[in-house]
Amino acid sequence: MSSLVRGFIDSWVRGFIGSWVRGFVGSWVRGFVGSLARGFVGSWVPWLVGSLTRGFVSS
Predict the structure, then answer these.
(1) Per residue in 1-56, pLDDT tens?
(2) In angstroms, rounded to a whole number, what is the distance separating the alpha carbons of residues 18 and 23?
(3) Can you tell me whether residue 1 is helix, strand or coil?
(4) Residue 50: which of 29, 58, 34 has the closest Cα?
(5) pTM confidence score
(6) Is 59 helix (H, G, I), strand (E, B) or coil?
(7) Rounded to 5, what percent of the chain is helix, strand, coil?
(8) Whole-angstrom Cα distance, residue 59 to residue 51?
(9) In angstroms, how far is CA 21 from the centroid of its own chain?
(10) Dist. CA 22–CA 40, nearest whole Å
């Protein structure tokens, strides 16, 4: 009986902590990747558009 209860509590705690960690890490990674992508696109797109525009105008 006690092993059954221990197994139930163990699986419940593991599931609870696992979902909490997954949610925390998932939101952190999403935020980090999002800001990284925003910074990359924000610096790369204007440069690309500017160089393309310059190339188009000069030709």
Answers:
(1) 789 999 999 999 999 999 999 999 999 999 999 999 999 888 988 999 999 999 88
(2) 8
(3) coil
(4) 58
(5) 0.47
(6) coil
(7) 95, 0, 5
(8) 12
(9) 14
(10) 26
Query: Given the structure tokens 């209860």, which residue do they identify?
Result: 5
Query: Measured in Å, how far apart are the chain's first and last C-alpha atoms?
Result: 83
Q: Which amino acid makes up residue 24? A: F
Answer yes or no: is pLDDT of 58 > 90.
no
What is the length of the chain? 59
